[in-house]
TrEMBL record:
The keyword Transmembrane applies. It comes from Candidatus Roizmanbacteria bacterium RIFCSPHIGHO2_01_FULL_39_24. Coiled coil: none annotated. Residues 75-258 form the Membrane protein 6-pyruvoyl-tetrahydropterin synthase-related domain. The lineage of its organism: Bacteria, Candidatus Roizmaniibacteriota. This is Membrane protein 6-pyruvoyl-tetrahydropterin synthase-related domain-containing protein. The chain crosses the membrane at residues 77-97, 104-123, 129-147, 154-173, 179-211, 218-237, 289-306, 327-348, 360-386, 398-418, 530-551. InterPro entries: Membrane_prot_PTPS-rel_domain. Keywords: Membrane, Transmembrane, Transmembrane helix.
Amino acid sequence: MKLLAKLQKWWMVFVILLIFFYLGSSVSPTSKSMFTFHDETQAARVEQFTQNLTSFHIPPRMAPEFSYGMGYPVFNFYAPFAYYVTSILNILGLSVIAALKTSFLLALLGAFLGMYLFLKELFDKSSALFGATLYITSSFIPVEIFVRGNLSEMWFIALFPITLFLLVKNSKVFTKKTFFLTTVFISFLLTSHNVFSLLSFLIVPLFISILANKKRNYLVFALGALMASYFIIPAVLESGLTYASTIATQTHFADNFLCIKQLWSSPWGFGGSTPGCVSDGMSFALGKPQIIFGLFGGVILLYNLLKRKQFNPTSPEASRGRSNLTIFVSILTVVSLSLSLHESQFIWNLFSPVLSLFQFPWRFLVFGVFGLAYLGAFGFFSVLFSTPLRLRPPQSPYPLLLSSILSVVLILSASFLYKGQSLPNTIYESKYLSENYVHNQVAYKIPEYLPKTADYLVWRSFENKNTLPYSDGQFVKSSLNIHYFPFWRIEVDGTEVIPTKFDSLGRPLLDLEKGSKVLVTYQQTTIEQFSNLATIITFFSLLGLIFYKLLWMKIQKIKN
């Protein structure tokens, strides 16, 4: 017993090492190969994002070399958090490929640690360890990494539980450190993924509503949202200048619903999503242990509600708070999984103007994975510690030992999925970071960000061609080789000119006198500058609230 007690502090380290070596080996920055995935443009995006940072174009709005070097406003509309992390790793000395692998690895470890901290705040260490392991060993997580290659989604998976942990912490203990970190991580969450960041504006306030000291958490959420203004405001207000919404709605969500059996068992593959339930080229299984333990936790929750049992009779308030959170997560899980199934199509049809932007109903599996892991931890905690099913006293080391054993089994059994189809680093780099690929091909993989000054169909007709014509057949030679977007500032002989005529590739057409001097510079739009200013002011206001004693004292008085 004493030996087990002494070893408790090392069990967590041991599990993290297992995650690193068994689940993270294929995303190790020292690996000589790189796995391929659906979103093959990731490396090129990182390269262009890094180029912006090193040129002090912050925040990045444009990929300067995409689309034949005409500038492509992808970063104005694509959630940037994951690219800040990855590009900073690149700037610190890692190659683009190594930085990309490291970013996936950090997101995986962040998801584990974030879920552990969140669950430990509600339950105990052993339940938290078990739930966090369930979270990252779901078979949908390696799909996100090795099949889809969705870096932004992986970072959302990491940031979501971390943010919830900080909100719970902030509701209990109101310190400057917690207040600051909660605000910052909310801004990270809201800039991590386009679709899930949008959903977070609904889910996070609902989560806050069931916590104690709601007002202080609503305050940090508002501050976090304002800190994310540099991305959110331009992404919303300027998206109409591109083909984003048009192309998003062309993906028929009805072709991407799942059947319930696919959540339990779905063949592994590196293909894509197809209509129906039998021909998908990728797996949508959540993991049998996740479903079994999640359902077990759900049954215990239902039993407690029907019998009006409390987790901790000596602390009814804490018991009610934990119960409310568990009910909230259960509802989120059921709703999310339901929205991924064929049976929910009538809901999608009813709200199609909004839901069609989500494109793939199975995106909601992310919250299903989170919820099942939470309920698994809840079930573990209930059986081992809570009345009427208490099996072990709270101070016993055996629950943590059992949790560690289960975690090891889960990690080892999931490790065979944490591998992708790989290429040697040199071949991967020559294929996805070559000048031809970056200049002439990447933009066609993400065509929704083409400015509307260009004719989409004409632009698409040049796909797979190495050069563009000086004339498109309709107009005279274009003076400026840019896709015009309002962040371009054009001066003719020192006078700013706002073009009104464009060729079918979106290149400005100017009436120039002989000998005229044309200067084209990049300058963020008024909306973008205002958004940047909102972020800067909010950040310094946050510092002022923390370090100015009178303001901090007023905030401390905020109650429900």
